[in-house]
Design brief:
The chain is of the alpha/beta class. The chain is built from 18 helices and seven strands.
Length: 396
């Protein structure tokens, strides 16, 4: 098995993220974020300087309810530096350090709340919900396909990737031409018309979460079965969704600011949440730098019960394929490590990965197509202009 991507310069995007993008995120947070105590600003400044200097990795200190698990994970990387470590680990450690700097577990200040609020209040949300409403009026056979498309391109709206966020979801013609793998049809054929749970492993809040909730609403209405939303336990990255963000988005829908149809959607979602057909499953596992094969039994059992797992975004995809830049032509089944050995049946459920491409890993793409894209746009794997709807089939 090839090694996971590192920040040592062997992968340009990973190196640039640690050396440039993430220090910029800290600068923006200090400048535009919530009013932070002086100690928090000092800790953030220190973190920024450590990144720029490629200093040794440093674990946060207690109090922290997840300190023990992080301490165990850190032992493998204790000799690493920011500019010479596995990107998946360094990526998660960076955002966990931010959370500790602002003392989120103690005072509950979401350092990304301002960016999230601006995204939720932007005119783009009302425009998007009008398109969602149009998709919802289609015949059932087309409704889920259309909402899966919007859910995929909603993944562009990642506040840690400003270029993708600026592009928005694009128009239908542009979306079709940029979809390099499309296995939505096969994924939906695996779903019976009625009954059986579906899981959505969420990524970003804001526009993306709005579409994901619309998709969940349609799945509940059409299939008369529960939908589970797997969520971060605490804020991670700039815009990753938590249970609080879901409840806030439902309340925003119900307020009517995104239009009458969104208000009706909010009412249905609130009822589904109250009645138990929409289930929220926040867990610290989704905040940790662990592969999907390392999912604890409580997560594995929930996912295994699902007839389909819809896996959103780049971080979750990297979790699935061990954040490795697999050679084009490598079957996705070969890249996906064995399902969690602690699970009761070790059965890999069908997983439909929806992502706008913002990092390099992409097994399963045809080599000739990868070569054509390399020639046409050398940054196609990372600039969020292209997307995939890729199915990892049960049992490989």
């Amino acid at each position: 098995m090839p090694n996971p991507i590192r920040t040592d310069g062997s992968n340009r995007f990973a190196r640039d993220s640690i050396a440039r993008r993430y220090p910029s995120i800290v600068d923006e947070m200090i400048r535009d974020g919530p009013d932070l105590p002086p100690a928090a600003t000092r800790e953030l400044t220190l973190l920024r300087d450590e990144l720029k200097d490629g200093a040794p990795l440093r674990l946060f200190a207690p109090p922290a309810p997840d300190y023990d698990v992080w301490s165990r994970l850190f032992t493998r990387y204790a000799e690493d530096r920011w500019l010479d470590t596995e990107w998946f680990f360094g990526d998660h450690l960076f955002f966990r350090r931010i959370l500790q700097a602002v003392r989120w577990w103690e005072i509950g200040v979401d350092p990304f709340a301002g960016a999230k609020e601006a995204e939720n209040r932007s005119p783009r949300l009302a425009d998007l919900m009008a398109e969602v409403a149009g998709a919802a009026r289609r015949v059932p056979a087309e409704r889920l396909t259309a909402l899966l498309e919007l859910s995929l391109w909603g993944n562009r709206a990642d506040l840690s990737n400003p270029e993708g966020a600026r592009m928005g979801i694009g128009d239908p013609g542009e979306r079709d031409s940029r979809l390099v793998i499309d296995e939505r049809g096969e994924a939906l054929r695996r779903l019976p018309a009625d009954g059986g749970e579906v899981s959505i492993v969420t990524d970003n809040c804001g526009i993306e979460l709005a579409v994901d909730l619309s998709l969940a609403d349609a799945l509940i209405a059409l299939r008369h079965a529960p939908v589970y939303l797997h969520l971060k336990m605490h804020p991670t990255y700039v815009s990753d969704a938590t249970a609080f963000d879901v409840r806030a988005m439902i309340a925003l829908f119900r307020s009517g600011v995104a239009g009458r149809e969104a208000a009706a959607l909010g009412g249905r979602l609130a009822a589904s949440l109250r009645e138990g057909s929409l289930r929220l499953a926040p867990d610290l596992y989704w905040n940790l730098p662990c592969w999907l094969s390392e999912a604890p039994p409580r997560i594995a059992r929930l996912l295994e019960r699902s007839l389909l797992v819809i896996l959103k975004g780049d971080a979750n995809y990297r979790r699935l394929v061990r954040d490795t830049d697999w050679a084009p032509g490598t079957p996705l089944a070969d890249a996906v490590s064995l399902w969690a050995p602690t699970s009761p049946s070790s059965r890999l459920p069908p997983i439909l990965a929806l992502r706008a491409l913002k990092s390099d890993p992409l097994p399963g793409i045809e080599p000739d197509l990868a070569k054509r894209l390399d020639r046409a746009d050398p940054a196609w794997r990372t600039n969020a202009r292209f997307g995939i709807a890729q199915l990892c089939r049960s049992g490989g």
